[in-house]
Structures are given as C-alpha cells and as structure tokens.
C-alpha cells in the first residue's frame, strides 16, 4: 500500500498543479451555484493567497451583474439591522443576496462579529442569503482589495445584490465604499456629532443618507441638518444627483421599503445617466492599476532582495558609507537602465 501511494504521488507533476486543478474545480462549482465552493474561494482570497489571481481571472467574465450596495456609518448606528431588513425586502422580491460585513474590531475577541451574526440571524437562515464577516487584521489597504475580490466571487456566483457593511468613515472605509455602486451613509441621533463625522470624505461617497433610530429624539433635527448640508454640497458641485435623506427605525422595520425604492431610484439614475458605465470604468482602472503596481513591485523586489546584496547595502547605509536616497535611485537605475 505504501508503495502504491508513493507511485501515485510520483505521477503528480507538482503540488502547485494539483492546487490549480482544485481551484479550477472550485470555480466551476461556484459558477454552478455551490455555496461550499464559494466559501472556500473566499477563504483563499481572505488569506491573501497569491493563487487567488488564478481563479479570480476565471470568475471575472461572470461578474458585473450584481448591484453592489455599500452601507457605512459610525459604530452602532444600526447598519447590520438595516442590512438585515433590506435583505428581507430583497428576498420578498425573490432577489438573491450576498453580505460582506467588514469589521474593524479586534479579530481576537470576535465579539462584534458574533453580534452581527445574531442581528443578521433572520436573513442567514435563508439559503439564498450568504453572509461573510471579515476582520481587518490591521491591514486596511489590503482589505479594500480583498473586499473587492470577495464581492466579485459573490457576483460571479450569481448574487443579484451584494451588500457591504463597513464601520466608520475614515479614508480606508471610503476606499471600500468606492467598490459599491450605491453607498448609504447611516447616521443616528444622539451618537456624538454626526454632522462633524460627515466631513472626512463622507459627502464624497454618500448617494443616500439614512437617519436611523428615528424613534429617538433628535431625528428630525438631524434630517434637516443633513438635508441642508447635502443641498449646499450639491450646489457647490453642481451635482446631478442629490442624496436623499431618509428616516428609518430599523429594529421595527420602519422605512425599509421606501429606502429600497430610493436605492432603486439611484440605480436607475446611474444606468440612465451613463454614470454606472463611467463609475465602473474608473473603478476598473483603479483596480487594474493597483494590481499592476502590486505585480511590478513584487517582481522587482524579488529581483532586488533575491540576491542578498540588499543586506550588504543596508550594512553600508547603517555605517553611513552610503545614503538610502542615492542608493534607491541606483538600484532602480540598474533594473531600468533605459530610464537613466
Ligand atoms: N432604538 C433603536 N435601536 C436600534 C435601531 N436600529 C438598530 N438599533 C439597535 O442599535 C444597536 C446597534 O445596531 P447594529 O445594527 O448592530 O448597528 P451597527 O451599525 O451594525 O453596529 P456596528 O457594526 O457595531 O458598528 C442594536 O442594539 C440595535 O438593536 C433603531 O431604529 N432604533
Ligand atoms: Mg454591524
């Protein structure tokens, strides 16, 4: 037995080829609607395994069909509850839904992840709803890419809608939000200065504002304040789209249907105005550019770091025999001699 197993192993050309075949099978299964295969491919992407490039290429032709909805806002404003309710409305319309919850909280405790799962419980009992929580692992730059790739897998799988929940309104979340076709910014009364939080790039990404927790006092005042800001901003930018400001009480499923109608209106606006094409072109450009940068730097760094001379250089720099500025120029000069 031991002999024959050794023989089998010896006819396998390489472990890499083996894995490529498995990937190919997984892609075929995903395209045929296997949830298990989708979960496995997502895990490969999440681990930032370079082999994900192989299968993402095969999935790509099947993408571009899902409407990607971003839901962002400060912690605790009700994003997960809203996601759950929006998902229910979509399911009543017989649309299939994928949810990516990007959670910046500690990957060690997983507390918030568990909370999200509980709040999204109703939707998650449904086989046509696929929910994936992702922790940031302190690598937000990579997370925007990973999120974009996970969206592509869900899109390729055939989800009609992919909802991406991100917490916070910093630059990294803005990056993630840019992968969405429609982005909702969720605010809630009594959670600090919501208007203040609208400064950092939020107005740039918000296609729609939701004032959730409208059962609490201060909701109407917040709606008015946000509307004024939107109006001012739209006038300055001469924007063709004015972000509507809607009120919801997500826990009681109030305002969810009008919200979905507003999302649909935005989607129609994108399609009819030609904006969808433009936005997706820009997105494709950015994505391809960042892939290109990554690939170039990986290849170039392999060359530079592969020969061990880099460490000698560091010795020279630390002994002040050389300086890092000139040295970097020299290295690049040897790799691209024509540029000099
Ligand atoms: N009063 C009230 N509470 C709500 C409403 N919507 C959500 N909540 C509650 O607010 C809390 C936070 O809701 P989540 O849906 O987890 O909020 P979140 O924005 O996803 O939170 P993080 O993902 O942790 O940032 C929960 O206890 C919800 O039950 C609402 O409309 N009114
Ligand atoms: Mg949440």
**What topology, given as strand order, has the largest sheet?**
3-2-4-1-5-6-7
Q: What is the oligomer described by this structure?
A: single chain
Average pLDDT across residues?
Answer: 82
Q: Beta-strand level of the residues, as a percent range?
A: 5-15%
Radius of gyration: 24 Å
Low-confidence regions = 1-13, 106-115
CATH first level of the largest domain: Alpha Beta
Q: Judging from the principal axes of the Cα atoms, what is the shape?
A: globular
Number of helices: 16
CATH homologous superfamily grouping of the largest domain: P-loop containing nucleotide triphosphate hydrolases
The number of strands is 7
* Element order: H for helix, E for strand: HHHHEHEHHEHEHEHHEHEHHHH
């Amino acid at each position: 037995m031991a002999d024959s197993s050794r023989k089998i192993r010896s006819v396998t050309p390489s472990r890499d080829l083996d894995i490529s075949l498995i990937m190919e099978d997984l892609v075929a299964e995903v395209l045929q609607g296997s949830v298990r295969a989708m979960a496995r491919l997502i895990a490969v992407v999440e681990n930032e395994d370079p082999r994900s490039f192989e299968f993402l290429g095969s999935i790509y032709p099947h993408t571009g069909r899902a409407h990607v909805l971003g839901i962002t806002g400060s912690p605790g404003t009700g994003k997960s509850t809203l996601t759950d309710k929006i998902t229910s409305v979509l399911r009543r319309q017989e649309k299939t839904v994928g949810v990516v919850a990007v959670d910046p909280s500690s990957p060690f405790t997983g507390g918030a992840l568990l909370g999200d799962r509980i709040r999204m419980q109703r939707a998650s009992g449904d086989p046509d709803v696929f929910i994936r929580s992702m922790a940031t692992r302190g690598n937000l730059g990579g997370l925007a890419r990973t999120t974009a790739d996970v969206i592509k897998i869900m899109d390729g799988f055939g989800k009609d809608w992919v909802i991406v929940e991100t917490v916070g309104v910093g630059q990294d979340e803005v990056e993630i939000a840019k992968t969405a076709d429609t982005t909702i910014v969720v605010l809630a009364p009594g959670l600090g200065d919501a208007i203040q939080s609208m400064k950092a790039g939020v107005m740039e990404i918000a296609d729609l504002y939701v004032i959730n927790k409208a059962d609490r006092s201060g909701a109407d005042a917040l709606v008015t304040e946000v509307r004024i800001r939107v109006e001012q901003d739209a006038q300055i930018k001469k924007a063709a789209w004015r972000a509507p400001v809607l009120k919801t009480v997500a826990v009681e499923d109030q305002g969810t249907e009008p919200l979905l109608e507003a999302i649909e209106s935005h989607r129609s606006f994108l399609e009819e105005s030609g904006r969808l094409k433009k936005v997706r072109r820009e997105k494709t450009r950015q994505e391809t550019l960042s892939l290109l940068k990554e690939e170039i730097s990986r290849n170039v760094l392999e060359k530079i770091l592969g020969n061990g001379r880099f460490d000698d250089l560091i010795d020279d720099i630390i002994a002040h025999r050389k300086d890092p500025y000139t040295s970097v120029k020299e290295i690049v000069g040897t790799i691209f001699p024509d540029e000099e």
